[in-house]
Write a structure and sequence with these properties.
Layout: H1 9-12, H2 15-18, E1 24-32, E2 41-44, H3 47-58, E3 62-67, H4 87-93, H5 105-123, E4 124-134, H6 139-150, E5 155-162, E6 178-185, E7 196-197, H7 200-203, E8 217-221, E9 223-224, E10 235-236, E11 242-243, E12 251-252, H8 256-264, E13 268-269, E14 279-283, E15 290-291, E16 296-297, H9 299-302, H10 305-315, H11 331-341, E17 347-350, H12 357-369, E18 374-379, H13 385-397, E19 400-413, H14 416-420, H15 423-436, E20 442-448, E21 451-463, E22 471-476, H16 482-487, H17 494-506, E23 521-524, E24 528-532, H18 538-542, E25 547-548, H19 550-559, E26 564-569, E27 571-572, H20 576-579, E28 584-588, H21 591-598
Parallel strand pairs: 2-18, 2-22, 3-4, 3-17, 5-16, 17-18, 24-26, 25-27, 26-28
Antiparallel strand pairs: 1-22, 4-6, 5-6, 7-15, 8-14, 9-12, 10-11, 13-14, 19-21, 20-21, 23-24
Helix pairs in contact: 3-5, 5-6, 11-12, 12-13
Length: 599
């Protein structure tokens, strides 16, 4: 596979390894609920440092990553500010913020994204998927860097989001109406997308003009363009007319033998006249329960940029022409990602959280299917509390709203048949009004671009209904420093240093539920039971109590069995030849940590 080369790559290729661990500091006054590290999280801090802080507890556990990074349009004024100690990087810092005239802006964007993508890949579970929105500015480079980190074989698709609901007539050349959504899997051999629920619009395409007892069906063309050796034969219609073969350049998609079988089973439709070119009847009762996701996402289905701004303005009760956030994403867009990529108990991560759309979408998805999805949001900007987290608070608690909430319930393509005999269509509209009448005050029925659109409308003058949920608001603490541990200047909590040690030694995440600090037990990896004899107390670490003794080693070997034991302790009072028969290996703290991390 071709290698991606960009200026500065040699300095950032392994930069994620040199990022120190920062403990996550909870702020209960900014949170909703009791708070837990294994629940919903909103983290304010540099996203590179925050991603590294998540590794000890979440490596390989995230089911879906959705990010909306800087598009690098040259107008965003983002800054490259990673602490990479090289002359080229220091020179770049002096030219921040990055503008359109910066000839190295693509290199700088790649330098910013590379270590973050490496950490995101490490956090993603084996059957997880990664979704990133972009436009043409960096789409080409993003494909190259993702192929390098995720593997070209794990590329799934490029989805097109039709993001605007009207063309931009002020455009110099073309109205740019779409963004891209790059989709990768951690392992494409095991990842499978969920089928999407059939919409009313899709179901409406199924008819039953011949009153077939098997129910409504959709006509499928018998001819196909793909070569099929047995797809060339003549067909005689019920009226006796002979069709010599399929249309030029195509083939019948079934053999003559299978065609005769389908005809015997009344699965061939010749049109109302009985003399048309035949098609195959596909019964709604026999098709899959859902539909395969498509790569074209229309704004009517997943929202537009205008919809997103309007929704955000409503949540924050914005004044006319007041812009809350420049580039929010529609909630429906992220909900579509969740519908395709997650199960009801999935963990979803967004490390460029912005206006908090991903958390809003997770809460909505849980409300719709009674799911238990969790979100982790990371936002480095100063509005992490006032915008990102505040939006989530408003959604959970309900927010003041004065106006009409609208929800599209039906979008039906009008045809000559439906206009000629509108009874069935009118019956469907009546059924929708009966089913959803309790949810809305009125229904709007209009024809737009050849579609009948039915919309439920509800007047709200007060607060919206709360959505069940909660989160813990975190900031990043001071970096865990080996030098400061050695001097006792900074001693992390048992959970903080334990998670760091466990992940560094095993490459696996540590579940806080497994920690038994009173017994010095951290948890179980694939190869070890891991122990830590430690208290954040310099006097304790200098005492005999902090040492691994023969008595402790024997107790450890009896309490937990089936695996070897890895014990972190400041010192030991027993030779290795006595530890090895017990299956115990001692690692000196903190020197052993330094050895393991650098190896």
């Amino acid at each position: 596979m071709p290698e991606l080369v960009f200026k500065g790559k040699e300095f950032v290729y392994n930069h994620h390894l040199s990022i120190p661990y920062h403990p996550l500091i909870a702020h209960q006054e900014k949170s909703i609920g009791t708070g837990a590290l294994d629940g919903n999280l909103i983290i304010h801090g540099d996203n590179l440092k925050a991603l590294k802080a998540l590794l000890p507890h979440y490596a390989g556990k995230v089911d879906c990553i959705f990010i909306d990074p800087p598009y690098n349009t040259g107008t965003e004024n983002w800054c490259y500010n990673d602490n990479v100690n090289s002359p080229i990087m220091r020179e770049w810092f002096d030219t921040n913020p990055i503008g359109k005239e910066d000839l190295l802006r693509h290199d700088k964007w790649l330098c910013m994204m590379y270590p973050r993508l490496k950490l995101l890949h490490e956090l993603l579970s084996e059957n997880g998927s990664f979704w990133m929105t972009l436009d043409d500015n960096e789409n080409y480079h993003a494909r190259a860097v993702l192929n390098e980190i995720f593997g070209e074989q794990n590329f799934i698709a490029t989805c097109i989001w039709h993001k605007v609901d009207s063309p931009k007539n002020t455009a110099q050349f073309f109205s740019e109406d779409h963004d891209y959504m790059l989709v990768y899997a951690k392992n494409a051999e095991v990842w499978k997308p969920n089928l999407l629920e059939r919409s009313e619009k899709m179901i409406a395409r199924y008819k039953n003009p011949d009153n077939d007892p098997r129910g409504e069906w959709l006509l499928s063309d018998l001819a196909a363009r793909n070569f099929y050796a047995q797809g060339q034969y003549s067909i005689t219609t019920p009226s006796g007319r002979v069709i010599d073969g399929p249309p030029a350049g195509s083939y019948w998609r079934v053999s003559e033998e299978n065609f005769r079988r389908l005809q015997r089973e009344n699965r061939i439709w010749w049109g109302e006249s009985g003399d048309n070119r035949p098609g195959i009847k596909r019964f709604l009762s026999e098709v899959k329960q859902g539909v395969v996701p498509q790569t074209l996402w229309k704004w009517q289905d997943v929202g537009s940029t205008r919809n997103a701004k309007q929704a955000l303005s409503q949540i924050f009760s914005a004044k006319p022409n007041e812009e809350i956030f420049v580039t929010p994403k529609p909630v429906d867009l992220v909900e579509r990602v969740l519908e395709i990529a997650t199960q009801e108990n999935a963990l979803v991560l967004d490390s460029f959280a912005g206006s908090g759309t991903t958390a809003h979408a997770v809460l909505n998805a849980n409300q719709k299917d009674n799911g238990d999805r969790n979100f982790i949001l990371i936002e480095s900007e100063s509005y992490a509390d006032s915008l990102t987290a505040e939006r989530v608070r408003k959604v959970i608690n309900g927010y003041e709203f004065h106006g009409t909430k609208r929800e599209e319930l039906l979008r039906e393509k009008l045809s000559f048949t439906s206009v000629k005999s509108p009874e069935k269509l009118l019956d469907r509209v009546a059924a929708i009004e009966n089913l959803d009448g309790h949810r809305f005050d009125s229904f709007s029925k209009v024809v737009e671009d050849g579609y009948l659109v039915v919309t439920g409308e509800k007047a709200i003058d007060g607060n919206t209904e709360p959505i069940q949920g909660g989160f813990t608001y975190y900031t990043l603490g001071a970096p865990t420093s080996l030098d400061k541990i050695l001097t006792g200047e900074s001693l992390p909590s048992y959970e903080t240093i334990g998670g760091w040690l466990f992940h560094t030694a095993t490459g696996e995440p540590l579940s806080t539920a497994s920690i038994e600090a009173d017994e010095w037990y951290l948890g179980e990896s694939r190869a070890y039971h891991v122990w830590l004899i430690y208290k954040p107390d310099l006097a304790f670490l200098k005492s005999r109590e902090s040492a691994l003794t023969l008595e402790v080693a024997e107790t450890i070997s009896k309490v937990r069995t089936g695996k070897k034991h890895l014990v972190f302790a400041a010192s030991k009072f027993v030779p290795n030849k006595m530890l090895l028969p017990l299956g115990v290996e001692h690692v000196t703290l903190p020197f052993g940590l330094f050895r393991i991390e650098k190896s």
